[in-house]
Glycoside hydrolase family 43 protein
Amino acid sequence: MSEMQQDAAVTNPVVPGFHPDPSVCRVGDDYYLVCSSFEYFPGIPVFHSRDLVNWTQIGNALDRPAQLRLTADTRSSGGIYAPTLRHHDGRFWLIVTNVTEGAGNMLFTATDPAGPWSDPVRLPEVKGIDPDLAWDEDGTCWCTVAGGSQVRIDPYTGETFGPPHKVWAGTPGAQAPEAPHLYRIGEYWYLLIAEGGTERGHAVSIARGRTPTGPFEPCPTNPVLTHRGTHRPIQNTGHADLVQGPDGSWWMVLLGVRPRGGTPGWHVLGRETFLAPVTWVDGWPVVGEVTPELPAPAWPLVPGPAEAPRDDFDLSELRPQWISVRDRPEEHCTTKERAGWLTLRARGASLDEPDVVFVGRRQQHLTCQVRACVDPAEGRGGLAVRLDEEHHYEVEASDGEVRVLARVGTLRTVVGSRSVPAGPVVLGVGISGTPPRDSRTGPDTVTLGIEEPDGTFTVLGTLDGRYLSTEVAGGFTGRVIGLYAAAGTVHFDWFDYEPLGL
Ligand code: 6LW
């Protein structure tokens, strides 16, 4: 490793933006990681890394309706909750809960984690969220869910054997024991869980036993990780998964948030994936503070391919970073109708409704600039910063006019507007993050407007970003910035996402 690399610090989060509930597995020199995706389609982003630090999205595990049924009744932050990713018996296994009514727990397999993944094996007898998979030495497969319920299953058929039994359910009196992961490490079986709820009280605890079904002895120093009660820049740390590094050292991926602005601080990027080193003392894991920067690990870093700021929509399929709300039928979203353009055909729904025609990507930086070239000749649509149906800011073009609109809860307003000549127009959103612990303001400022033919930017609205934060809107997701059609047909020539700061 070069001298430069030796001193290079690793920046947390390692997977920024709304990528919560990470689960990681190692196969030889390769690492794979998945996250929850809730009401978005396709679902469950899949990432690859060679160093646990640099992650590249290689696909989405659930990319067809047969795998992922999200209906208009799937509420925002419903749908796909926490997955577990494992590798066993020569294939990848993914187990996850779709909380949409009538869906439940299901298992998917793949030989290539980039896909295709199988159709679901349903697990109707497995009740509960955050399902985990672990195999005993004799090949017995144990499924453990939030709250400490465990049952033996056949992962090929979904059959369960016998009623579930209780295993360690966390610290007495602690809220919400969730995110169980069972590991065989050395002479023990370890059961890692989250507890305290996914807000500021979040924590990671662990117990160990001699068999995968326990009994389990809690770690005397539980919780082994929490940031509750601190003023650390990263909060809500919890929902972790353990993995060994290339040199045999141990690491933890986990979710956390980066609140900005005054007290209590608002986080706008959702719960992100962080990395933390783990050491072992007396057979128990010790996890230090999860910090914005980590010393470079003791192996070479392998950066992934740089992501180009511009998507020209030149491919027949959208890149895996693009997600839609609940579904993305080809008749409403295609790059095959006008070569080099994305065509969105509205279905009578605006951003206020669950079946809006929307294609976006997660906001992954506290400060960034987004621009898009839109041709509204046949309809009305534009560029939006979305948290959910009740919390979004957008700059919208129709033939001859551009408006900036905002929805926060029951409040809807037109913030600004102006007439524009017929033809394509460049819409823009500038997001500038507030410096850490700046108590005067919210987390950021969102500026919306249009780019003039001479390249200058005309602001049509400047809005406080706190109203597009989880502390205001609630929920489990984070901001998604994207393109939508509210009426008729709208064509988009290109989309630029430029990070301008962490
Ligand atoms: C996830 C569970 C949780 O399944 O929230 O608050 C759910 N904890 O672990 C969605 O992230």
User: Anything to note?
Assistant: The longest helix spans residues 3-7. Helices lie at 3-7, 470-473. Residues 20-21, 36, 81-82, 129-130, 178-179, 194, 197-198, 239, 476 surround (Z)-L-Arabinonhydroximo-1,4-lactone (CB under 6 Å).
